[in-house]
């Protein structure tokens, strides 16, 4: 049997002696290799995972301490790898975030990396109209749980008598004009933009865009699932800032199949 090792504990709690990970029984069904587990701790990866869970919940160290019975100073040292957790303390933390102890010992998840080849993209028309004014291609449809949706859009020259179709959606939007000229309507305001201009706007306000040049206009559009925080009344800009306008496409979170139905 392995010789017990003393593992640093929360100084705010009564002093206790705990056996190292390889000698402590774990939760039913959980098999933890002692050497591998201690190697993970030594590399500070457990502390990093705890901090990731805490920040994801927008939780401070004091609040996490209240839930776990551990001091904020101890949790801070744990996250930075200056102290080593016991399984008991680790279990307390895991329960706060509805995680199993396995979470702390499984291989690191791979970071997101996706390439969207030009030849693999699908060109879709503006939805809700028989004669589309623009076409677009999703640049991020293969990314799971994405926080933003990027698109490449081509706007066709305006036709006489044609009225652009306005739309709105949750969050905000960014547009960078790659070529040509566009007329952007945002609420009751109308703006002219051209190659090189960039626009950022509240997409929950009705908006539309129209190509006003003799040739097609192209733009990179990114929709974000984050509400805009304004310092003044809705739709106003900070004093001294020039007025600019804005455009919009499918809302963030649109799947590859659902893109056509989301575009406005």
Question: Separation of termini?
Answer: 68 Å
Mean pLDDT: 75
The percent range for strand residues is 15-25%
The profile of the biggest β sheet is: 6 strands, antiparallel
Which spans of ≥5 residues are poorly predicted at pLDDT below 50? 1-28, 233-248, 250-264
- State the domain count: 2
**CATH level 1 name of the largest domain:** Mainly Beta
Helix percent reads: 10-25%
E-strand count: 9
Give the CATH superfamily of the largest domain.
Jelly Rolls
Q: How are the strands ordered across the major sheet?
A: 1-2-3-9-4-7
- H/E series: HHHHHEEEEEEEEEH
Rounded to the nearest angstrom, the radius of gyration is 27 Å
Q: So what's the overall shape?
A: elongated
Q: Would you give the CATH topology of the largest domain?
A: Jelly Rolls
Structural class: alpha+beta
Please tell me the CATH architecture of the largest domain by its name.
Sandwich
Description of the structure:
The structure is a single chain. The protein has helices at 34-42, 45-56, 61-68, 72-79, 87-96, 259-262; strands spanning 123-125, 134-138, 148-155, 172-179, 181-186, 189-194, 198-202, 207-211, 217-224. It is built from six helices and nine strands; from the N terminus they run H-H-H-H-H-E-E-E-E-E-E-E-E-E-H. It has two domains: 21-104, 434 Repressor (Amino-terminal Domain), CATH 1.10.260.40; 118-262, Jelly Rolls (Sandwich), CATH 2.60.120. With 264 residues, it is of the alpha+beta class. The termini are far apart. Strands 1-2-3-9-4-7 form a six-stranded antiparallel sheet, with no helix packed on it. The protein has a three-stranded antiparallel sheet with strand order 6-5-8, with no helix packed on it. Residues 1-28, 233-248 and 250-264 have low confidence and may be disordered. The radius of gyration is 27 Å and the shape is elongated.
């Amino acid at each position: 049997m392995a010789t017990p090792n003393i593992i640093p504990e929360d100084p705010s709690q009564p002093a206790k002696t705990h056996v190292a990970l390889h000698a402590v029984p774990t939760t039913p069904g959980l098999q933890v290799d002692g050497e591998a587990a201690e190697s993970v701790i030594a590399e500070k990866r457990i502390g990093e995972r705890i901090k990731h869970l805490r920040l994801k919940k927008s939780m401070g160290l004091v609040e996490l301490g209240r839930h776990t019975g551990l001091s904020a100073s101890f949790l801070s040292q744990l996250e930075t790898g200056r102290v080593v957790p016991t399984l008991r303390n680790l279990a307390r933390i895991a329960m706060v975030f509805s995680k199993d102890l396995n979470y702390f010992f499984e291989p690191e998840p791979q970071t997101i990396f996706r390439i969207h080849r030009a030849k693999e993209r699908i060109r879709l028309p503006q939805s809700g109209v028989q004669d589309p004014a623009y076409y677009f291609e999703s640049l991020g449809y293969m990314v799971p749980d994405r926080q933003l949706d990027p698109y490449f859009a081509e706007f066709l020259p305006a036709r006489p008598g044609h009225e652009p179709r306005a739309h709105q959606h949750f969050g905000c939007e960014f547009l960078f004009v790659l070529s040509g000229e566009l007329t952007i309507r945002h609420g009751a305001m109308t703006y002219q933009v051209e190659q090189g201009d960039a626009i950022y706007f509240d997409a929950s306000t009705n908006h539309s865009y129209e190509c006003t040049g003799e040739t097609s206009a192209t733009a990179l559009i990114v929709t974000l699932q984050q509400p805009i925080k304004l310092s003044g009344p809705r739709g106003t800009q900070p004093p001294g800032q020039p007025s600019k306008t804005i455009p919009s496409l499918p809302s963030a979170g649109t799947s590859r199949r659902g893109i056509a139905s989301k575009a406005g």
